[in-house]
Structures are given as C-alpha cells and as structure tokens.
C-alpha cells in the first residue's frame, strides 16, 4: 500500500461508517416503542462491527489478490488503522444509546443525539473535503451542499429499502 492510499482508505472507512451508523440510528428511531436501549446498543454495535469486519476482509482480500500474499508490516497497520476508524465513528452513538441503557436518557433522545453526531460528522467530512479543493468559495459552498445532499440521499435510499 503506498503512502497516499492509507489516509484515503481510512477516510473512506469513516465515511462508510458514518452513513451506515446514521442509517441504523434513524431506522431504530422508527422502532423505539418496541426496542430497548440495550437492543439499540447491540444493533448499532452489530452494524458497525460488521462494517469493520467487512472493510478489513475487503482490504486483506484485495491485498492478497494484488500482491499474492497476506498483508504485513506497514500494509497491515494501514488496514487496521482504516478499520479502526469505523469503531471511532461508532463511539458517540454507542455512548449516547448506552446512556439510555443506564437510564440516564430516554431512548429516543439518545438516538437523536446519536443521529445528530453522525450528521455533524458527515458535514465535517464534507467541509474538510471542500476546504482542500482549489476553487473559489461559491463553488466550495456548492460542493459542500452537494456532498451533504448526496450523503443524506444515500441514507434515505437505505432507509427506503427497510
């Protein structure tokens, strides 16, 4: 794996994790009456854990296909770091819903906090991407709005499928 690929892979995993996490949290908001906070934590953990494993599996498989061997050294560290970004993205949603499991918050409030944290993550990632683009500010604003809209459309399509 070359040097530029590692940050790209890590950021890609964070974007995926944010979209999956937001879809999961919004889906859970539709079922708060029949879902306990513990079940919600387990659902978020399972979705993010599965994404973490899938990302790692995909990277290891791609490395084996490309190089004919298992990754090791820097390549393995980059793969582990990229999949770790999924777990970092899951932290605030799991903590907020965990607070509901402890009785500190109502479940719907905790899920809204989790959703807001993930929407803000989407906005922050879009802002980072836009800020580094070498175009004038009106085009940057259009890019930012477009990226956030596309991300939310992805979440909307995922929700429609359920």
List keywords for this structure.
single chain; 162 residues; mainly alpha; 5 helices
Brief synopsis:
By secondary structure, this protein is an all-alpha fold. It has helices spanning 5-29, 37-67, 74-101, 107-131, 137-160. The N and C termini lie far apart (37 Å).
Helix-strand makeup class = mainly alpha
Unreliable spans are none
Please write the string of helix (H) and strand (E) elements.
HHHHH
| Major sheet details | none
Tell me the total number of β-strands. 0
Indicate the proportion of strand residues: under 5%
Helix content: over 70%
C-alpha-based Rg, rounded: 17 Å
Structural commentary:
- It is built from five helices and no strands.
- It is mainly alpha-helical.
- The protein has helices at residues 5-29, 37-67, 74-101, 107-131, 137-160.
Topology:
Elements: H1 5-29, H2 37-67, H3 74-101, H4 107-131, H5 137-160
Helix pairs in contact: 1-2, 1-3, 1-4, 1-5, 2-3, 3-4, 4-5
